[in-house]
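Hi there,

I know you've been waiting on this one. I reran it after we fixed the sequence typo, so this is the corrected version. Both the input and the resulting structure follow.
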Amino acid sequence: MNFPDNLRYTKDHEWIRTEGKEAVVGITDFAQGELGDIVFVDLNTPGKPLAAGDVFGTIEAVKTVSDMFMPVSGKVIAVNSALKDNAAVVNSDPYGDGWMVRIEITNAAESDSLLSAADYKKLIGA
């Protein structure tokens, strides 16, 4: 499994890559592996301000449907519309083309409480 060091992670298996006042959010390689074959992603939050821990969408796999949670507070400024036609890209490239949302961060200090790659590996026993 891959856990890039330049990302921060949540206990709910989301990752965040901060780019100035914006950030990109997705699910981890571990999460996509646990879900299995991903068949649908519902990202119905464009333009919405959300607090850390709020649901920003759902992801459906053959086995189950799971909520996805905001790692930090922010406003969703873009969703990965390519996932509508090819949700399986989350399985093959969770940190690249399989990203979920781009946000405008409203409370950057919240990222201090997120996990490093090493801490996330400990959490999942990797």
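Quick highlight: The CA atoms of residues 35 and 87 lie 12 Å apart.

Best,
R. S.
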